[in-house]
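quick one, 65 residues, struct below
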Amino acid sequence: MSQVANCPTCGGQSKIKEANGQTIYEALQDESVLKKVGQLKKAMQKYKEKAEALEKEIEKLKKSH
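---
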């Protein structure tokens, strides 16, 4: 993941990079933020589905014992 900080010039959210001993601030664009949010939503949905499947399997195991 990228490091994010407030830009000292404009106060907006920015990705920061270190290059040649200098900190470079790159403004977060709406598109890149939306893309990251979409990726996170997909990942969370996968984990949610896995957790639900495991819960069902646990219930089956409890009933069989």
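The first strand starts at residue 3 and ends at 6.
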